[in-house]
């Protein structure tokens, strides 16, 4: 049990050092889920983010069947940097979601 805890703590510290999606607090994930889970007819939902993250169509359809597709996408790319996530959100026209992620970065730098 203690060994697993140490591994978890080490992994957590490595994620923080790498500035990856896995280190974002759940409150940011929740905001992304609220904004990206609803399907949009043109672009800007979880499907576009998944595509930009490199997932194939089959996997995107599997995400769509889940209760929170955005959470599934984020879990699938937890080692992607926060900066890359913000770039992808901007590319899919979701500056509102990008601001949610940026607000966490502002918190870290203060």
In short, what is this structure?
Pfam families: Death. The chain is mostly helical. Helix content is 69%, strand content 0%.
C-alpha Rg (nearest Å)? 14 Å
Q: Please summarize the sheet with the most strands.
A: none
Report the portion of residues in β strands: under 5%
What is the overall shape?
A: globular
> Helix/strand/pairing class, anyone?
mainly alpha
N- and C-termini, Cα separation:
35 Å
- The oligomeric state of the chains shown is single chain
* Helix/strand order: HHHHHHH
Overview features:
single chain; 110 residues; mainly alpha; 7 helices
Write the layout of secondary structure elements.
Layout: H1 2-18, H2 26-36, H3 46-52, H4 57-64, H5 69-76, H6 82-91, H7 95-109
Helix pairs in contact: 2-5, 2-7, 3-4, 4-5, 6-7
Description of the structure:
- The protein has helices at residues 2-18, 26-36, 46-52, 57-64, 69-76, 82-91, 95-109.
- It is mostly helical and 110 residues long.
- Helix 2 packs across helix 5, helix 2 runs antiparallel to helix 7 (95-109) and helix 3 runs antiparallel to helix 4.
- The radius of gyration is 14 Å and the shape is globular.
- The model has no long low-confidence stretch (mean pLDDT 88).
